[in-house]
Amino acid sequence: MNAAALFEPFEGGGLSLANRVVMAPMTRVHSPGGVPGPEVAAYYRRRAEGGVGLIITEGTAIDHPAAVSHQDIPNFHGEAALEGWAQVVREVHAAGGKIMPQLWHVGMARKIGELPNASALPIGPSGLDLAGEQITEPMTKSEIQGIVSAFAKAAKSAKEIGFDGIELHGAHGYLIDQFFWEKTNRRTDEYGGDLEARTTFAVEIIDACRRSVGPDFPIVLRFSQWKAGAYDAKLAGTPDELSRFLTPLSNAGVDIFHCSTRRFWEPEFEGSALNLAGWTKQITGKPTITVGSVGLDSAFTSRVTEQNQEDNIDRLLERLERAEFDLVAVGRALISDPAWPAKVQAGKADEILPFTSESTKTLY
To answer: Which one from 43, 44, 174, 191 is the annotated catalytic residue?
Structure first.
């Protein structure tokens, strides 16, 4: 396996990176009271030292009482949490890495009574959970504008702290994605309707973030077709539908699209080998990040054990060499071995520590 393509420098979307390896955002719940401490800073620094070109942090809570569903998920607001993140940035930069926070609101994926704010009700475009059940009232326009402002506030803080950009979590059935998906968005105002109209909430967030950080600060949008518990869901069933979905988001100011799939080698539409990142780059002309079971012995799937063979990785590298996409996000493989990139680059793949469920229990 010749992995040279992974270690070519990257310039684009406002970023200058030493290589094409991205650390995918992964929730770790190791920030007591929502404050990332020295262990979190050391955790991210190890990945920078291990050769990751760009780190995207675990999801972080914007300033809203129902933003997340665990007391140890890190906040991205408040003096203590922001100082904790400033230390993370200092450590990663000292190791030569680049880093951006993932800004997050879980929306209706949060259950009533969950911490850190048990009395805060979950919010969503229509008050529907991912099964389509009515749980709360639809968000008011005032609530929508409050969330837009909270994302912009977090983006501004990220720039002030010294991060290298931001990622907006618009995937996996969380709040932004709940506006995208017709099953959870039944609104009849400007925030609902057809596929293009359902991007309005995200477009307003992107625009507000852009105005808060200026023209040159990178904004990444993570999106997915699948949702948690609805792995066959599709926002777009055809390339034309995907174009209608992506165009307003791209025009709003997204610099890079992070195209979340569970298995990178699967084609997105019949009649083409392009995956979601490949189609997204072809449609928008913007840089894209591919992701999904990279570096794992078995694929990311809840139903079958499917081997992630070396020839799949080889095909990934061939696609990268053809510039089908630009960057490759690695997730769980980096939880178990922070030196995964350095070992791959040095041809020492046999020394990589394999991912196990035990790896997730500590913050190494």
So the answer is: 174
* Residue 266 to residue 273: CA distance in whole angstroms: 8
Of 234, 221, 133, give the one whose Cα is nearest residue 184.
133
Predicted confidence (pLDDT) per residue in 144-178, tens digit: 999 999 999 999 999 999 999 999 999 999 999 99
Q: What is the pLDDT of residues 65-123, one digit of tens each?
A: 999 999 999 999 999 999 999 999 999 999 999 999 999 999 999 999 999 999 999 99
3-class secondary-structure state, position 125? coil
d(CA 11, CA 313): 23
Is there a catalytic annotation at residue 364? no
Q: pTM of the prediction?
A: 0.95
Q: Is the dihedral of CA 60, 179, 210, 19 positive or negative?
A: positive
The runs of H, that is alpha helices, within 186-339 are 200-213, 239-252, 276-284, 310-321, 332-336
